[in-house]
Design goal:
By secondary structure, the chain is an alpha/beta fold. Helix content is 46%, strand content 12%. It has one domain: Alpha-Beta Barrel (TIM Barrel).
Length: 375
Amino acid sequence: MFKFGVVINLDMQNKIEEILNKSNFDKTDLVSLLNANDSDTELIFKKAAQVKSEFIGNSTYFRGLIELSNVCTKNCFYCGIRKSNTNVKRYTVTDDEVLQTVKYALDRDWGSVVIQSGERQDSAFVNRIENLLTKIRSLSSQKIGVTLSLGEQSVETYEKWLNAGATRYLVRIETSNEELFYKIHPKDNLHNFELRKKALLDLKKTGYMTGTGVMIGLPFQTIEDLADDLLFMKEYDIDMCGMGPYIEHEDTPLFEYKDLLMPVDERFKLTLKMIAVLRILMKDVNIASATALQAINPDGREEGIRCGANVIMPNITPVKYHESYNLYKGKPQIVAETDEYIRQLELQIAEAGDTVGYGKLGDPIHFEKRKKEDR
Ligand code: 5AD
Ligand code: SF4
């Protein structure tokens, strides 16, 4: 019996090694990698670390995350700050507060900040962001890159914000399976799968370094769906990715399906595998180690770095707002990412074999290549 077990294991291991030696991966390969057992997963992580080191080097970049506002016009079924959740105290960070956080990031030589917010398309919002970007540009003399994560907008708005100084934009597809997309979003004009995909194409055309991402461990989601998500990112030739485990929130409609979920530590492991496999598949993109990983495991983001991620987004939103940006249960509400905490992170990044890319923008190498090919 024992011998039989060993044979099976070796067979599996050979299979994983065989796949990892390929230069192209089809859906079956990706499914096998995502289904790998714990010891084979170590092989995948090792390969991802090698690819990272070879193609983008061993720098991890800090991006200061500013959660600008939890006011949102949308009603995604999974999200704690959805419009219909009345248990949320809504807030908007002032321009002066944003500029102070940008200064914090500048003083620490971080290459960029990410401005994230609930989704609004009204002109007051669009103009406010344009204005804010102009202020950030004059404060930082373009020494800091600005990434926006402000949802789907018109091409005109994307252009306006690009001209005002933003260079990168993130719109998560959440899932590339249309049927699943409509299980986790209402089916209406505001939540439209085709428009979400179009946003990614519009952003690329406008000239942004473009990022997307998915949630991992959603109810009804299969390993095949996740393999398709990876292929989707490859097909859309994205420059950046941020993906994290789905974490249920009791004030949302999707909470009703909590019994269908895999245990959180499984979702955690699967997220690390997705990061590693994406690194192997897309080699030179930027991959963020998402905050939601840290919600499950205090060292979660550092684990992500070990498995192929190269971006960490410390939350620099003024502390008084933290408790109101509750996308999911257990979101880390650290008493701010203090200097002491950042020093800890640096140590853990060093343990993972990386150094922090201080003073560099850390643009995705994938984007530079993509631009050259477009010319
Ligand atoms: N669990 C994990 N991630 C979530 N997000 C929103 N709600 C949740 C949740 N319950 C993620 C989505 C969104 C990003 C801002 O936060 O992917 O795009
Ligand atoms: Fe709004 Fe984004 Fe939450 Fe959807 S996921 S409800 S768009 S903040």
